Amino acid sequence: MSSGVEADIVLDAAVVLTLGMNRALGRATGLAGRGAQALADRAAGRAEARGRRLAEVRDLERALREVVERNARIQALRELGAEDLPAPLAPGEDDASDDLTAWCARADALLDEAETALSRRIAADLGTQIFATESLTTDTSKPPAPTPARVDEALERVLSRLLPDATDEDRRNVIDAAKLLSETGSAQDAETVLSEVRLRVQGANNNARTRREQVRRARAEQDAREQAEAERQYVLTEVTKAFEDLGYEVQQSFETLTADSGSLVLSKGDWTDHSVRMRLDGDAKLRAKMMRATPVLSENDRRVDVEREQEWCDAFEAARERLQDAGIGSDVTWRLAPGVERLPVRSEARQTGTRAARARARERSPGE
C-alpha cells in the first residue's frame, strides 16, 4: 500500500442489530452489551454460542421495533381523541423479547377496542351532523319523512366502518351522501343512497390507508437513513479508536465540502511532512491516501516517503485486525506497494510548502 488504499466495509450482524436496538431505545447506549457479547463469542470462535446470541439479539431488535410501532399508534389514536388506551412502553435493558412481544399482543387488543369505540363515537357524531343538516334544509311546515329503523341501523353500521383518521373533507362527502336518505320515498331509493354512502366510506378509508402507507414508507426511509448514519458513525469511531491505539493522532477533516461524509486526517508526532487522509464514503468504502505537505526535492525525501508508506501499511493491517474484533470486516480492493508511486502533495499546502521546500534546499546547499 502506497499513496492509497481502498477497502469495502462490512459490518457484523451483531453490530447492525445492536445499533438498531440502541436507536429504538432512543439513546446511544443501552442494549449494546448484548451485541457486544455476540461479538465476544465471535472473537472466541464459539460459533454455536454466537449463533444463539445473534438469534436472541435479532428477536429482541424485532420486538423493540414492534414496541415502537405500538407506541406510535397509541400516540396517533390519542391525538384523534381515543379513550382507554394502553400506556406507551419504555423498554429497558433487562426486557426480554418474549415479554415485549406479549406486551405488543395485549396492546393490540386494547388498541383495536379503542379504535372501534372511537369509530362508533365518530359515527354517532356524523349521525348528529346529518340529522342537524336535515333539520335545517327540510321544509319546517311539513313533518320530515320517517326513516325506517332498519335503514337507520344500516346507516349506523356503515358509518361505524369509517376509519377514525379520515379527513374532514372525506367525512363531509359521506355526510352529503347520507343526508339524501331524508329525500328517499322507497326502500329501493334508501338502499341506493346507502350504497353511495358505503362507496364514499370505502373511498375515505382507502384515502386514509394510503396516507398511513405513505407515513409508514416515510418512517421506513427515515429509519434506513438513521441506521446508515449510525453505522457510519460506528465505523468512524472504531477506526479512530483503532489508529489512536496504534499511536496516531486522528482528527476530523473540515478542509473540504465533503467533510461531513466522514473524512479523517491521521498523523503522528514524528511525521513532520506526512499525513493520511481517510474517508468513509456512502457506498461503505473506506478510502485512505498518504499525502506530503511539501514537494519531494531529494532522494532522502523519497527514502523517507517509502519508510512512512511501509509504516502506514503495517499500521493499516494492524488496524484491520482491531476493526475485525469490533465487528467491522474490510476487504481491500486496491492498494500499491510502498515506493511504487510518488506521494501527492496536499493542495492546500502547495504554495506555502513550495516556499518552505526552497528554503530547506538552500539550507542544504553550502554555497548559498
Search tags:
368 residues; alpha+beta; TATA-Binding Protein; 6-stranded antiparallel β-sheet
What is the element layout, followed by pairings?
Elements: E1 4-11, H1 13-25, H2 32-43, H3 47-80, H4 97-137, H5 149-160, H6 168-178, H7 187-245, E2 249-252, E3 263-267, E4 274-280, E5 285-292, H8 299-325, E6 328-335, H9 350-364
Antiparallel strand pairs: 1-5, 1-6, 2-3, 3-4, 4-5
Protein architecture, described:
- There is one protein chain.
- By secondary structure, the chain is of the alpha+beta class.
- It has a domain at 4-9 and 231-364: TATA-Binding Protein.
- It contains nine helices and six strands.
- The chain has a six-stranded antiparallel β-sheet.
- The longest helix has 59 residues, at 187-245.
- The protein is elongated.
- The chain starts with a strand and ends with a helix.
Entry summary:
This protein is α+β, with helices and mostly antiparallel strands. It is built from nine helices and six strands.
Shape: elongated
Output the helix-strand order: EHHHHHHHEEEEHEH
- Indicate the proportion of strand residues: 5-15%
Structural class: alpha+beta
Note poorly predicted spans. Answer: 349-358
The total count of strands amounts to: 6
